[in-house]
TrEMBL record:
Residues 9-130 form the NmrA-like domain. It comes from the Eukaryota. Keywords: Oxidoreductase. The keyword Oxidoreductase applies. PANTHER family: NAD DEPENDENT EPIMERASE/DEHYDRATASE, STEROL-4-ALPHA-CARBOXYLATE 3-DEHYDROGENASE, DECARBOXYLATING. This is NAD(P)-binding protein. Belongs to the NAD(P)-dependent epimerase/dehydratase family. Dihydroflavonol-4-reductase subfamily. SUPFAM superfamilies: NAD(P)-binding Rossmann-fold domains. InterPro entries: NAD(P)-bd_dom_sf, NAD(P)_dehydrat-like, NmrA-like. One of its GO terms (molecular function) is oxidoreductase activity, acting on the CH-OH group of donors, NAD or NADP as acceptor.
Amino acid sequence: MAPLAPGSHSLIVVVGITGYIASQTGLQALKAGYRVRGTVRNKAKAEELRAAYAKEGADVSPENLEFVDLDDLLSEAQFEAAFTGADGVIHPALPDLTGEDAVNEIIQSTLIPLRAATKAGIKRFVLTGTLVSVITPGPKVPTDRLITDKDWNDEAVEAWKNASEETKKSPAFVGLKYMAGKVLGERAGWKYMETESPPFEFTVVLPAQTWGPKVYGTTSTSLGWLAGLLNNDATGALTRSPIYVEDVRDAAKLHILSLYEPETAGRRIWAAGHPVGWHQVLEILRKHFPNEAIPKDPPASPLDPCPWRIDMALEVKLLGGKWIDLETCMVDAAKSLGYTDAI
C-alpha cells in the first residue's frame, strides 16, 4: 500500500485539532506539505488556530487548511462527513471522562471513526494512545527488563472493573477510567483491524508525559503540572511517580512519520522521550527561571529518577537519532506559558 509521502499534498484529517498534541501535529503536517482538515467544536477557535499557525510560518490558505464541525465523538455520520475525500486520519481526541459511561465512550470513540474511515477509503489511520495503556507508573513497573509495545496495562482494567463505591467517588477514579478506557479502546481498534481488514494501515502512537511549547489553546493537564512547578505548586507533578517526558514536537513528528514510514504500519510507536526525576526537573527550572517560586525537592525515593526502561530503538531511528533534550523541552514549554528564560 502506497504511503502518504510528505509534500504529496495528501489530505489529512486531524480530529480535535485545537488540542495540545493535535494542534502541534496539524502545524507539522502543514509544514510537511500535507493539506489539513481539522475537526472542531467551535469555528471561532478554528480561526484563532489559523492565526496561530500563520504566526508559526505555515501556509494557512483555505486550500491548505480547512475546518469542519465535529462535536460528537460518537457520531459516525459526523466522522464520515469529516473523512470524505481524505487520505489519512490522525485521531488524538477523547470524549468527556467524567461521565459514568466514560470507558465505553472511549471504546466507541475509537471504533466509530475506524468504521467511518473504512467507508471513506482512508489509507493510513494514526490513533493517539498513551503510555498508561501499557503500564501504571509506580513501584509495580518491572525494572528487570525492557518495557515493550507488547505490554498492556491489564491491572488498570481490573482495578476499574472491581472498583469499590468509595473508589468511584474519589477524584482518582477519573484517571482509572482513562487508563482502562484507553487499554480497552486500543485493543478494540486492533481487533477491528484483525477481523474487518479495512483498506488502511493502522498505527498507535503512545505519548508519555508531554511537555514542550503549546501552539494554541488552554493549558493541557500535563503542561499545567509544569506551570504549577513554576508557581510553587507541589500538588501536581510531585505527587506522582517520575515518568518519561517527551517534547510535544517529537510526539507530533511521530504522528506525521506514522502517516508514511513503512516501519510504523501495524505498530505501537512510543512517544516517550526521557526518563526523568523530579530533582532533575526542578534543577532545570531553578537554572532558567530563578525569579519564580519553585517547590523544594521531594524526599529521596528509589523511583526518582524513573528506574524503568522502554525499548525505543525504532522511535529514536525514526527521529533521526535523538529526542529533543529535556532542558530545551521544558524551557520552550515555560516560555510558551509566558515565563521569561533568565539565561
